[in-house]
Amino acid sequence: MQSDEIATGGGRRGVIGRLWRSRVVRFGALGVANNLLAYAIFAGLTLAGVASIAAATITYVLGMVVSYLGNRSFTFRHTGSARRSLVRFLIVNAVGYGINVAILAIFVEHLGFNALLVQFVAIVIVAGFIFVSMRFWVFSGDKTVPTKPLRWGT
Predict the structure, then answer these.
(1) Angle 23-47/52-70 helices, nearest 10 degrees?
(2) What is the pLDDT of residues 7-34, one digit of tens each?
(3) What CA–CA distance (Å, rounded) separates 33 from 31?
(4) DSSP type of residue 76
(5) Which of 11, 83, 104, 129 is exposed most, by the fewest CB atoms within 10 A?
(6) Per-residue model confidence as pLDDT tens digits over 67-78
């Protein structure tokens, strides 16, 4: 395979480059890394005796900082108003936090399910809500930087 085929989308590297330009893939990659770290911190806190909702609150705040910076610059490449996107981001995450706490309160505190299992499921539910909200509200309507193709080997 010629190097220009790789750079323009031919071959395996071209497929990877096309996938990496996808907002969903970038959101997922950032989210997986952020949530693995948050889940590890959540597990450590709950195993140390911290209540599940308090542990979720601590990890949620830490994860929000990473999420805003990463999603603004990496996932959505947003160059519009930082103030506007931050306010919207905080609103979306407050709603996401409410969903997360409600899931924990119902399934852990009232029904007695395992906190680690419930939080794992809650992460998936809340992540879906947050992606859709960020894509169509938080980082929409302002400028976004177009995704440039990755150039392999140049």
Answers:
(1) 150
(2) 444 556 677 777 777 888 999 899 889 9
(3) 5
(4) S
(5) 83
(6) 899 999 999 989
Q: How many residues does the chain have?
A: 154
Which residues lie below 8 Å from residue 57, measured CB to CB, with a gap of 6+?
A: 97, 101
Q: pLDDT class for 143, splitting at 50, 70, 90?
A: low
Task: Give the separation between CA 103 and CA 141, rounded to whole angstroms.
Answer: 32
State how far the Cα of 115 lies from the Cα of 125, in Å rounded to an integer: 15
Q: Which helix (H) or strand (E) holds 125?
A: helix 115-133
**Cβ-based neighbours of 76, under 8 Å, separated by 6 or more:** 23, 134, 135, 139, 144
Cα distance between residue 143 and residue 80, in whole Å? 5
d(CA 133, CA 126): 11
Give per-residue pLDDT as tens, 84-135: 999 999 999 899 999 999 999 999 999 999 999 999 999 889 989 999 999 9
Find the helix packing angle between 82-104 and 115-133, rounded to 10°: 150
Is the Cβ–Cβ distance between 17 and 39 less than 8 Å?
no
Q: What are phi and psi of 144, to 5 degrees?
A: -130, 145
CA distances (Å), 7 to each of 11, 15, 24, 47, in order?
Answer: 9, 10, 22, 48
